[in-house]
Amino acid sequence: MEISLKPYSHKSPFHSEFADVFLWRNKKISASVLGRATVAWVLFELSRPKIPEAHLPEEPFLQIAAGLRIEINRALACLCEIASGHDLKKFLVVRIKFVGAWCNFLTLFCIVFVLLHTVPVLYEKYEDQVDNFGEKVMHEMKKQYVVFDAKV
């Protein structure tokens, strides 16, 4: 199936066939892509085989923990440095890994995939309301920064 490029009357940051799928301009292809992603998620996430649990004996685990104590202390010192905001790149990497601890990569990928299929079309439909709300939020944030700066 071939997707044709057509001129857009609406100004948009997206001008590609890729955008047509995420903005639901071709509903059959968009639904097909979203459906296939959902089926893939169901197959890989919900229908996984039962894997027997493995148990570690206590003694080797305690030996490993004793050997890693120094490295853990170094990591904690590094985290303190990151949390203080001195290294932005490390800070962002830690944030991404922290979100990854809540859900596995496949689920996170599917959430992002569904958001990419819904947010652009919703923004295009309600662009004026979203922009007005964003301006109000930015104005309120600037007022709060002034209050914060006065206190500090």
UniProtKB/TrEMBL annotation:
Q: Any transmembrane segments, and where?
A: 98-123
Biological processes, Gene Ontology terms: response to bacterium
Keyword annotations from UniProtKB, A to Z? Endoplasmic reticulum, Membrane, Transmembrane, Transmembrane helix
Top-level taxonomic group: Eukaryota
Keyword Cytoplasm, does the record have it?
no
Describe its membrane topology.
Multi-pass membrane protein
The name under which this protein is listed is: Reticulon-like protein
Q: Which organism is it from?
A: Papaver nudicaule (Iceland poppy)
